[in-house]
């Protein structure tokens, strides 16, 4: 729980609600993070029981349903460039999701969690290269707090997992 609270504090440092840097659009990444976290939790729970193709199918159906509801509010007929880019992104995302499902089948969440922090590195790098946005010191401090809290939580879960395994071993003996 402590790591989760620290992670939230890190996010609040980055977003800085109540300051002039805060904009309503700042809530969108938080909603995206909540959506992704929910998807990862569901993926982790279903990866042991379901085939990866089943998990991907459920994700695709949910995505189609959500986008079908939202489409009338911003639908624009795409040209072939947009369709090609959308197809490329869809293939890359499907491959990535399939690899995540496979990873959860073979490794625990506490082992996989630190790898998700590479998203911060890639997002920051792409933000600098594509948009020319250099993160300020508070963004770096907040991101560091988020990463450290996640690493702490992953470490704590590994310790708890070992303790549970030792307790089971003692019970069997």
Question: Helicity range of the residues?
Answer: over 70%
Name the overall outline: globular
The whole-number mean of residue pLDDT values reads: 82
Strand content: under 5%
The radius of gyration is 19 Å
Low-confidence stretches: none
How many strands, which pairing sense, and closed or not: the largest β-sheet?
Answer: none
Order of helices and strands: HHHHHHH
Number of helices: 7
Gap between N and C termini, in Å? 32 Å
Total discrete domains: 1
* Counted beta strands: 0
Task: Give me the secondary-structure category.
Answer: mainly alpha
Describe this structure in words.
There is one protein chain. The chain has one domain. It has 7 helices and no strands. It has helices spanning 2-15, 27-47, 52-70, 80-106, 109-112, 118-131, 137-172. The longest helix has 36 residues, at 137-172. The two termini are 32 Å apart. The model has no long low-confidence stretch (mean pLDDT 82).
Q: What does this entry show, briefly?
A:
With 173 residues, the chain is mainly α. Helix content is 78%, strand content 0%.
């Amino acid at each position: 729980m402590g790591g989760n609270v620290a992670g939230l504090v890190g996010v609040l440092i980055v977003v800085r609600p109540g300051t002039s840097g805060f904009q309503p659009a700042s809530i969108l990444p938080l909603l995206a993070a909540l959506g992704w976290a929910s998807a990862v939790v569901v993926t982790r729970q279903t990866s042991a029981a379901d085939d990866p193709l089943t998990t991907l199918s459920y994700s695709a159906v949910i995505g189609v349903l959500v986008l079908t509801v939202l489409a009338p509010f911003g639908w624009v007929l795409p040209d072939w460039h947009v369709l090609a880019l959308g197809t490329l992104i869809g293939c890359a995302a499907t491959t990535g999701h399939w690899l995540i499902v496979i990873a959860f089948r073979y490794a625990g969440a506490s082992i996989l969690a630190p790898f998700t922090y590479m998203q911060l590195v890639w997002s920051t790098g792409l933000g600098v290269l594509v948009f020319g946005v250099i993160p300020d010191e508070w963004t770096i401090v907040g991101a560091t707090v988020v990463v450290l809290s996640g690493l702490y939580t992953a470490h704590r879960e590994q310790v708890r997992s070992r303790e549970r395994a030792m307790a089971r071993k003692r019970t069997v003996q």
